[in-house]
Amino acid sequence: MTAMMEVRHLSFAIGTQTILDDVSLSLAPYRLTGIIGPNGSGKSTLLRFLSRHLPSTHAVFWDGQPVESIDRKEYAKSVAVMAQQSMAIAPELTVEQVVLMGRYPYKALFSGYAPQDYDIARRALEESGAAAYRTKCIGTLSGGERQRALIAKALAQEPELLLLDEPTNHLDAKYKLRLMELLAAFKQRGTAAVVLHDIALAARFCDDIIVMKGGRCRAKGPADAVLTTALLEEVFEVPFFSAVHDGLRYVYC
What we know:
four-stranded antiparallel beta sheet; about 25% strand; Rossmann fold
């Protein structure tokens, strides 16, 4: 069974500004969890703690262990992240070389990548829709193409938990749907949590929803129970509407 990520009473402030305020939640295994909320609600900061980009001081747990007690390379075999602000990547690297970076946790010291690593990287490129430009330099790509390449890099880690921060940014409608379908399919082998601005995508594809506002977890649970128009209107301060079409639920403002 996939290990579960848990957050227990996580708080974080910068100076006098509270970013996260006593947040407690868990990510259910083999489910797709959407994290939604207004700008500045703490969504991306929460993901930075889950991915260990910020030290949690024993407030974030993976498989029952504080994440800071786990070797970083071992943690990277279990948890992959695609963040808004990704690490600086040399623009002359090809897309395939960037995706291969996802195999680094599995690479022996002072050794190159194995044929299996190339096979896994190419499969991730196919899954993300980036295979057509695998030989192009990352610096020549459009925003959407780069986004798909970075998603492929995360998939190449073969994680148990996949964390994505606004991955649909820069993607056109076709690839937004393709990405969400990919994440829905990922549940067959792992767990995924995704920060989304698009409430309609969250309602259509996510099993569970975490709603953030003002640094606090305002609501959490199954999407059908959480994504009520009343709650969304309270959190986002605009009218929302809900409809069902061909068995799929749509929420929009």
